[in-house]
Write a structure and sequence with these properties.
201 residues; mainly alpha; 69% helix
Length: 201
């Protein structure tokens, strides 16, 4: 039961994250995600076999201290944005911000409602997962959202050179996780945010 709950909460949180990217892009001039049918809460539109199911299942079964995965990326054409250099920042930050907002809402529910233990566990798990997703995705390594923000800040030439590492980004991320990125960087930030929300795990 706990296994199923963790996986369901993880997928829903990633789905909210991806919808936020597509919705902000739509508001800023790019309707690619809308026409692709990705601005929906229908989970079937967002499932990626490896990133949403196989990898998270493997990590949960193996007793990993973190859940790593992804939904099917929302298609975005940055050239369609009203101001691509500026709007790429808003599109990039929208996913992590949606996870933080979701965690804040859940923390209020946790404090305001009298809930059975299983419901409290689900809410705390959801808060933790959303904070991890927010912090993890703000790491400035492609294809994570933090890299989009950095590319919007950098000059055109620097951002083009930075984009060249994207094909190797996933390998860099896994290498950093292996070297303790989660314990040394992500987890401390998550703990700080959780304390701000008045949540202890």
């Amino acid at each position: 039961m706990i296994f199923v709950i963790n996986l369901a909460v993880f997928f829903f949180s990633v789905m909210i994250h991806e919808i936020a990217h597509g919705w902000i892009a739509y508001k800023l001039g790019d309707d690619t995600a809308k026409f692709a049918g990705r601005l929906t809460l229908n989970p079937l539109a967002h499932i990626d076999l490896i990133g949403t199911i196989i990898l998270p299942l493997f990590l949960l079964i193996s007793g990993s201290h973190f859940i790593f995965g992804w939904a099917k990326p929302v298609p975005i054409n940055f050239l369609n944005l009203n101001n691509p250099r500026r709007d790429i920042i808003w599109v990039g930050i929208s996913g992590p911000l949606s996870n933080i907002i979701f965690a804040v809402i859940l923390s209020f529910l946790l404090k305001l409602l009298y809930l059975p233990l299983i419901a409290m566990y689900i809410l705390k798990t959801a808060i933790l997962i959303n904070l991890v997703l927010a912090v993890f995705n703000m790491i400035p390594i492609p294809p994570l959202d933090g890299s989009r923000v950095l590319m919007g800040i950098l000059g055109q030439k620097a951002s083009m050179q930075f984009a060249l590492i994207e094909p190797f980004g996933i390998f860099i991320i896994f290498a950093l996780l292996f070297m303790g990125l989660f314990q040394k960087v992500i987890l401390p930030f998550v703990v700080v945010f959780a304390r701000i929300l008045g949540i202890t795990f």
